[in-house]
Amino acid sequence: MKYRYAMVCSSNQNRSMEAHSLLKLQNFDVFSYGTGSHVKLPGPSLREPNVYDFGTPYKQMFDDLRRKDPELYKRNGILPMLKRNLSVKLAPQRWQDNAADGSFDVVFSFEEKVFDMVLQDLHTRDHVLMKSTLVINLEVKDNHEEAAIGARLTLELCQEIEAAESWEESIDEIITGFETKHRRKLLYSVSFY
Q: Kind of pairing, strands 4-9 and 106-109?
């Protein structure tokens, strides 16, 4: 694989981690991030989410929720999601704090507000490397079924980007072909590191 990829979603780590997991299985150089101030997972009600700091190990979250209400969190898919996340990496990371991970060739987001946040963050950084990075938004609803579909679509896009001689020269054609095939509109922009 010739490119480094980042998967970015808001704060619950479902969509980005589903894509990260699938791409990792296919041997892509991939990382995943959230953009919120905390990791928020559904709780017993909308007003009672489970909130964790970025960097809290997935195992700790898993054990905490299993202790609180194992049936609820198994039924709503949170325990299986955390188990999947455990197999991918130790703990959630925040996009805005990712400077230690270096630069990425392609960054995927899964909702427009995150796409805007990523672009804003990239625009406010010092552009030391002057290396171009492609930022793509593939709108994906935040549920387990849609996250799985979104991950497969992300994999397909990554494979097409990898197959191109240069994404810079081919991206318009790749995006147009994808949108026509899947009837999904993508947002994309080029930024710099």
A: parallel
Cβ–Cβ under 8 Å, residues 111 and 164: no
Give the predicted TM-score (pTM) of the model.
Answer: 0.94
1 pLDDT exceeds 80?
A: no
Across-strand partners of 50?
Answer: 41
Residue with tokens 């969190």: 73
d(CA 172, CA 168): 9
pLDDT at residue 63 greater than cutoff 70: yes
CA distances to 3, 81, 136, 188 from 143, rounded to whole Å, are: 28, 11, 20, 23
Chain centroid to CA 73: 22
* pLDDT in the model for residue 99: 67
In order of 4, 17, 110, 147, the CA distances from 142 in angstroms are 24, 12, 9, 7
DSSP line for 45-94: STTS-EEE-TT--HHHHHHHHHHH-HHHHHHTTHHHHHHHHHHH-SS--B
Q: How far apart are CA 58 and CA 88, in angstroms?
A: 10
